[in-house]
Amino acid sequence: MGRVSREDELWMRHALVLALRARDAGEVPVGAVLVHRGELWGEGWNCPIGDSDPSAHAEIVALRRAAARVRNYRLTDTTLYVTKEPCVMCAGAIVHARVKRVVFGVHDAKAGAAGSVFDVLRSEHLNHRCEIESGVLEPDCRALLVDFFATRRGTRNAR
User: Fold this and answer.
1) Which of 140, 10, 155 is nearest to 84 (CA)?
2) Residues tagged active-site
């Protein structure tokens, strides 16, 4: 980890609170916060089941809210904080929005697109690349996901 700051931890804690909203709604507990120069521009949590929308991942929701707020689909000079590594769909949206930096908590070994399975966010084939910081509050982000899936499977003490 290179540039993890106190601010990174603060915003990731906010994303974790949002992930709890997703969990409480029966969704996979992922939360996301988009910040521009210390100001919250957009936030979201997973809600594809509740919204009947396969694109309603936390990152997409946060990007949509931010873009609506600033009335621009380009979200340059922003940082996206997300509790879990973005998937390919979300990574594509992040690149198109021109997000400068992505900070996430836990890697996704099955579908991560920030280096775990794919590296969409830093692909030289695209016209924008993001800075990536991983592992911010990783134990908290991981525990939330592990507990959620263990509870869902009925194996809560499996951790």
Assistant:
1) 140
2) 59
Structure token pair of residue 119: 């590296």
> Measured on CA atoms in the order 108, 128, 35, 66, is the torsion positive or negative?
negative
CB under 8 Å, gap of 24 or more: what pairs does 154-159 form?
none
pLDDT tens for each residue of the chain, 159 residues long: 456 799 999 999 999 999 999 999 999 999 999 999 999 999 999 999 999 999 999 999 999 999 999 999 999 999 999 999 999 999 999 999 999 999 999 999 999 999 999 999 999 999 999 999 999 999 999 999 999 999 988 876 544
Query: 3-state SS string over 1-64?
Result: CCCCCHHHHHHHHHHHHHHHHHHHCCCCCCEEEEEECCEEEEEEECCHHHHCCCCCCHHHHHHH
Report strand pairing: 31-36 vs 78-84. antiparallel
